[in-house]
Amino acid sequence: MQSWGLTDPGNVRKQNQDAYRMERLDRSAMLCVVCDGMGGAKSGNIASTLAVEVFAEEVRRCWKVTMDQDQIDQMLRSAVKLANFTVFDQAAQFAEFDGMGTTLVAAFVRGKRVTVVNVGDSRAYGINRGGIQQITKDHSLVQLMVDRGELTAEVAKTYPGKNYITRAIGTEPMVLCDIFHREVSRGDFLLLCSDGLSNVMDDQEILFEVVHGVNKQHCCKRLLSIAKNRGAPDNVTSVLIQI
After folding, report:
1. CATH number of 12-188
2. What pTM was estimated for this model as a whole?
3. Higher model confidence: residue 40 or residue 44?
């Protein structure tokens, strides 16, 4: 199992409010997490960095090789809960952090089983030579409209207010996360990314770069280069895991 990650401010933003972490927990388990902060120049980066650090450290503290799937799910939910409490508490204590929050998407890989946890609109994709599948479901206004049949998925890509999210880490005292399970095989890929990437590349383009790119360790750089060539109006972060 290998992993690569990259984050960049993009072409427009002066500050990078994304954060990520990749951590090997033992010989068979790995944790990767991506957060996309919000709340203005003074606090978006604080929210994402706090959430990444608190979430990852809580998983490291709790993880035991004897855990079954239900215990892994509970561990990830508890880590989300602690990250949410920490960001919310900091926002409540300091006026300059008022209103800050962040998305969070993480993949816990243990052998051939992946557990993904998600809050917000950063995404996880499963990728192999058979195709690409978005594992997570955005917590966003446009996704709700798609679910209700008010928008098509195609129209939703450019709909005004596309970036308005309905759940975030740190904006409320409590937050609900979604958990997804996926079986993987040797050679499969997982991609975690902020919307700075998914907003400017469609799924098939991502599939092509991941599967057909010769040097996998440069894949995140190629994805960033494409995003920048298309304007990169937001911060761009990607983490690629090869099973």
Report:
1. 3.60.40.10
2. 0.94
3. 44
